[in-house]
Amino acid sequence: MAVWVWPESQSFRDDGHLGGIPSSWRGTCVEGEKFDPATACNRKLIGARYYLAGFESEVGPLNTSGGAEYRSPRDRVGHGTHTASTAVGAVSPNASYAGGLGRGVARGGAPWSRLAVYKVCWFKDLTGRCSDADILAAFDDALRDGVHVISASLGSTPPLMPLFMTSTEIGAFHAMQLGVPAVFSAGNDGPDASMVQNVSPWVITVAASTIDRRFPTVITLGNNVSLVGESFNVNDMKMRLVESGSVFADGSCSFDQLTNGSRAAASGKIVLCFSTTTASSGVAALAVYAAAGAGLIFAETISRRSTQDNFLPTVHVDLRQGTRILDYIRGSSRPPTVRFSPSRTLVGKSPAPTVAYFSSRGPSSISPHILKPDVTAPGVNILAAWPPMSSPTVIPLDKRSVTWNFDSGTSMSCPHVSGIVAVVRAVHPTWSPAAIKSALMTTAYMYDDTSDVMLAGGTLKAADAFDVGAGHVDPLRALDPGLVYDAGARDHVLFLCGLGYTRYQIRQMVLPSPSLDTSCGGEGGGAAPPPEYDLNYPAIVLPRLNATVTVKRTVTNVGPRRDAVYRAAVVSPHGARAAVWPPALAFSPYRDTASYYVTVAPAKLSRGRYDFGEIVWSDGYHRVRTPLVVRVTTMPDTDTGVDVAAARAMDTPTSTQLQDS
């Protein structure tokens, strides 16, 4: 979904190992500008459609002049080719960025899967624009065509619309009803809290994290001091060096601070800029280019330092290194100089993974009872296929051409998980989307390659469930999770009821089906709908814990031992007491499901801070981990003293009350 594609990429070649197109496939390849189905599609790329009606009704006619876009499924910006090859790209030896960086064998997460693309976003004003009408039309076609997994690297920045008014959530609900998992990106608005997008419980929402590959670049100052930064620099270059204060009026590397003397100060030189005064290295590179500069050193906080490709040679350093360079410039008795050596590829760099600083964080701004994101996956400096007609940065000034490119974002982590989902579904074709999501979440891990808790980029703190969801995906363990949490369309309807949506609003979301009850409890004097936290989700979040709450969960044994016995271990969040009953679950060939109850009580006075624990079920081989997140709110926000009633309640046994919400 949203996928543009460059069909000539070797990631989408028909290498003869796939066999015939499945008879269940009902899709087609649609002809369009510079896209001939006879040559573009094959047994790997088996479907391609594009959708323009909504876009053109909202934005106006598509501009295709000068190759600005293609009125077809063909990729203009690289995003779709990159994400599609990450998910299902064929095994491609000798893949690398310019200069041989990252050289190796490239392959998608599910390299033997087939690909169908549905182009719903269009390149305008240097970004992708997508219409809700086009998105829903694409979902409808994809489901009719017979896709098995939907991967959608798109979303909307908060404030979020209600679920029943969000095209992606509606389309994904339809997919869930038909047994098709939908995988979405979490967004790139981190590290602030509650910026996560695509938050419905029926989708898999993916955060972004790093891998253990770096691209160190030695920079040597004129005083022979060498520092190591990071970049995708492929050339050896030595030039004069100048600080941003000599080029820009207030020292911030931006267009509006250019002066009449900027070009004279920067011409042919490398400029040192700091993230403390400039939004990003991309912004700084454009400003330095406008001042006739030849290169950029960009100093940023260590928690956000990363490699970003710019059309202008750019080396990223941390603030400490940047300060040393600044001291050299200001203290040098000669005109300061700097040399950039070509970057190298270094694998095995610890710690990894860490959460990408830009990855959007939870809790959900629609329903904080549902943990979002769900999992994290690689999304920083991912090397994947790229259309040669698009430059690595897609900026018009950039005239370079590559067939493999590095890119970062939750758009890149999403297809990693989509590929894993395709493999899990192939191994377990009868599993529901909820069961597949559960397998990913309960087998995910929280630790990096130093056996310490992952760091959350942008903060330097240990990552928690709002950074990574249940943790980093583990593809092999997800194939054999032991237990899964399952949920169907009716369960999700009741969740929507718990959000307060009306029957009319719910009917706007669902595919009409005589077998699906869209009513809410409480209608006509019936029982009230269950609270949101009772959805059978592979995580428990209680955002307003002011009294004892009991939560029910049901698990299904999908492991090889039908008579397995699982025992629980509980780590209570700080400030709360959690207990599980029963403490053991026994399965048999005649009983593959079992329910358990988690009772959580506040154990501190608090106006509200999230704390994190977990419930782990194990049969001695499988480890089924369920995050437990609570926010104790035993003191009213307006109270200036101790809430005596709450204090007594924490020391006095109480009956179970469903008062979390």
From TrEMBL:
Any matching Pfam family: Peptidase_S8
Domain Peptidase S8/S53 stretches: 70-459
InterPro entries referenced in this protein's UniProt entry, alphabetically: Peptidase_S8/S53_dom, Peptidase_S8/S53_dom_sf, Peptidase_S8_Ser-AS, Peptidase_S8_subtilisin-rel, Peptidases_S8_3, SBT, Subtilisin-like_FN3
Domain of life where this protein originates: Eukaryota
Alphabetical UniProt keywords: Hydrolase, Protease, Serine protease, Signal
MF terms in GO: serine-type endopeptidase activity
Protein name, entry field: Peptidase S8/S53 domain-containing protein
Source taxonomy: Eukaryota, Viridiplantae, Streptophyta, Embryophyta, Tracheophyta
BP terms from Gene Ontology: proteolysis
Family in the record: Belongs to the peptidase S8 family.
PANTHER family given in the database record: PROPROTEIN CONVERTASE SUBTILISIN/KEXIN
Cited PROSITE patterns: SUBTILASE (PS51892), SUBTILASE_SER (PS00138)
Gene3D superfamilies assigned: 2.60.40.2310, 3.50.30.30, Peptidase S8/S53 domain (3.40.50.200)
Domain Subtilisin-like protease fibronectin type-III residue range list: 534-630
